[in-house]
């Protein structure tokens, strides 16, 4: 996980919002309750909540994934995303020791 990539990924309001939503998927994506949240949140759910095109949401999620902040799980034709909480712990330690 490259520090610069992480901070670039966090430098976008919508990507920050997506990370916040993914922190509590049960509260933010009730439409996925039937399918469950074990694999994460489906891109379609994120797209609907963000009110952005599928390509924009996919690009944002790709940036977050490359920065190591989210993980993706492919299930058939669907891709599910969830926060990598260990990455946020490492980021917190990095910030507290650097600043």
From TrEMBL:
InterPro entries the record matches: ArsR-like_HTH (IPR011991), HTH_ArsR_DNA-bd_dom (IPR001845), HTH_MetalResp_TranReg (IPR051081), WH-like_DNA-bd_sf (IPR036388), WH_DNA-bd_sf (IPR036390)
Key words of the record: DNA-binding, Transcription, Transcription regulation
HTH arsR-type domain segment(s): 1-99
Keyword Cell cycle among UniProt keywords: no
Top-rank lineage group of the source organism: Bacteria
PROSITE patterns: HTH_ARSR_2
PANTHER family in UniProt: TRANSCRIPTIONAL REGULATOR, ARSR FAMILY, TRANSCRIPTIONAL REPRESSOR SDPR
Protein name: Helix-turn-helix transcriptional regulator
Protein's organism: Fibrella forsythiae
Lineage of producing organism: Bacteria, Pseudomonadati, Bacteroidota, Cytophagia, Cytophagales
